[in-house]
Amino acid sequence: MEDYNNQGYTPQQNYQQPPYQQNYQQPVYQQPVYQQPYDKTREVMSVGEYIGMFILSAIPVINVICWIVWLVSSNTNKNKKNFLIAYIVMSIIGAVLAGVAVVAIAAVTGSSVSDLLNSPPTF
After folding, report:
1. How far apart are CA 89 and CA 118, in angstroms?
2. CB of 11 within 8 A of CB of 17?
C-alpha cells in the first residue's frame, strides 16, 4: 500500500482522483476612492438662509453693502454668489427694459421723456 502523504492525497480521496489543489487567485486591490476635501462653500443653502438673504436685500443701503461683501468674500456659499450674480443681471435687464419702455411710450405719445417722468400720472 502506498503512502497517502507522499502523493498529495488525503485519506478521503480516491487514488484515481488528482491531488487536491487550491486555485490561486491574485488578491484584488481596489483603487481608493478620491474624496475632495470638505468645502463649506458648497453646502446647500437652507430656506431660512434664503429668507435672511431676501430680507437683507430688501433694505436699500444695506443690500449693496451685503452684496459687495458676499461677492468679494472667499467664504461665501457658491449658491449665494450665483444667486446674487443672477439677481444683479436680472436687475440690469429690468432697468434697461424699463428705460426702453419709457422711451417707447414717449415716442408713441409725442411727448418728451422728461415730461413723462416729471408729470403726475393721470387716470
Report:
1. 28
2. no
